[in-house]
Amino acid sequence: MNQSILIYRDENDFHALSAITRAPVRSSHSAAELIQFALDETAHGEVFLESGEYPLDRPIRLDSHRRLNGRGRGTRLRPNGNGIRADQAEGSTVSNLSLLAEDGSTGNGIVFDGCGDCRVQEIFVAGFSDFGIVLQNHCFLCEVRGCQLADNRQSGLLLKNLLKGRVGDYIQNHVSHTTVYGGGEGIRCDEATVVNLTGCSIFQSGGHAFHLISSNSVLISGCRTFQITGSAVVAEKSHELNVSSGIFCWHTEDGIRLKACRWGVLSANEVIDTGSFNPGTPDQSTRFEELPPIPGKIGIRLEDIRGFTVSANTVFNWPQGCRMSHGITEDSASRKNIVQGNNINYFSKAAVRCEGAESLVTGNLDQGPDPHYSVADFPLIQSFEAHRIQEFIDRQRA
Q1: Do the domain assignments include residue 383?
Q2: Whole-model pTM above 0.85?
Q3: Is residue 71 packed enough to be buried (19+ CB in 10 Å), middle (13-18) or exposed (0-12)?
Q4: Residue 382 included in any domain
Q5: CA gap 292, 284 in Å, rounded
Q6: Burial 78-97 (b: 16+ CB within 10 A, else e)
Q7: What is the 3-state secondary structure (H, E, C) of the chain?
Q8: pLDDT (tens digit per residue) in 68-98
Q9: To the nearest whole number, what is the mean pLDDT of the chain?
Q10: C-alpha–C-alpha distance, residues 48 and 19, integer Å
């Protein structure tokens, strides 16, 4: 069929029309059956879903050169399991709709497996037991842009096994202007090579905001994290790393923690409120003296790191949090790194502690016991109430 198809719901039935002539094409009691029929019929065309509820009793399969469009968040797909899947697809797009997991169901929102030049745009994905969006198995030139990923239990976004592909090796994928909140980790890269993560925000994730495992040549730029249970950035065995121009604020563990990485740069970031204990009470309603001693964490922590430049970062805590133990540390397994021109404030032990061989440490400024703003040993601890964002998510899923 050379025309695009429009689908709408009328009570318990679903109807497909020609998007041009409005001539009836097909009707069905099953939203999934009708959407799949329309996608199969429209090679190089588009399927438009009007606003409404679309329960899915099976996953939607997206083949090459298809485009599935909603009318915004009012187009609500409710899969009982996995939502949308594309295998080896090329030039396909999913955009402008919501994918809302049914309570108790298992699966992922959207999975692109081995796809090329495909897009996920302006999608709201919430409540899946595994991952909100997955790019895996050598996807290339794919993009996730402008999505909102909420309360997906393992991670909002997973990029996995992005290495070699059918048209070349180590071809980039891009995630931009995407927000992850609630759920497990924010964005996880597992053997995902050549990935750009730009302009993304992670809020109140239940694990690390950005977690890289064996993922080389990853750029994290212009990103923001806030109120994270875990670290803002953790990278393990991930080489050619660039973390720049980010604001990483209010995390319960170390700010940026690198392990066994080679070559990279951490530059022009703000790392704020490292090691913030969260009592879960209303903000500044609990006194520090009511809590057990809070161990200080490290703003930027380098473990077995070689060939990195750490420069022009501002690493500090507000006194409503607690003091860091150190601003920047480098262990004895590290070597030949540059730690230069960083500004560090409000710590208990040392601004910079570097133990690596042949590393250069120069031009760092610090002030330890007193904050640059407000007063030391502020009596009330900052806190956030996770149930409030969960209530917000539940309203959106209802």
Answers
A1: yes
A2: yes
A3: middle
A4: yes
A5: 16
A6: bbbbbbbbbeebbebbbbbb
A7: CCCCEEEEEECCEEEEEECCCCCEEEEECCHHHHHHHHHHHCCCCEEEECCEEEEECCCEECCCCCEEECCCCCEEEEECCCCEEEECCECCEEEEEEEECCCCCCCCCEEEECCECCEEEEEEEECCCCEEEEEECCCECCEEECCEEECCCCEEEEEEEECEECCEECCCEEEECCEEECCCEEEEEEEECCEEEECCEEECCCCCCEEEECCCCEEEECCEEEEECCCCEEEECCCCEEEECCEEEEECCCCEEEECCEEEEEECCEEEEECCCCCCCCCCCEEHHHCCCCCCCEEEEEECCEEEEEECCEEECCCCCCCEEEEEEECCCCECCEEECCEEECEEEEEEEECCECCEEECCEEECCCCCCCCCCCCEECCCCHHHHHHHHHHHHC
A8: 999 999 999 999 999 999 999 999 999 999 9
A9: 96
A10: 8
Q: How far apart are CA 235 and CA 26, in angstroms?
A: 50
pLDDT tens digits for 143-179?
999 999 999 999 999 999 999 888 999 999 999 999 9
> What percentage of the chain exceeds 70 in pLDDT?
99
- Please provide the distance, in angstroms rounded to a whole number, between the alpha carbons at the two ends of the chain: 36
For 359, the domain range is: 103-397
Question: Which residues, in sequence order, are bridge partners of residue 159?
Answer: 135, 189
Question: Cα separations (Å) of 173 from 97, 144, 208, 213?
Answer: 22, 9, 21, 16
Does any domain span residue 52?
no
Which residue type is seen at 389? I
CATH assignment of the domain containing 253: 2.160.20.10
Is 262 a member of any domain?
A: yes
Number of domains in the chain: 1
Instruction: Name the pairing type of β-strands 5-10 and 13-18.
Output: antiparallel
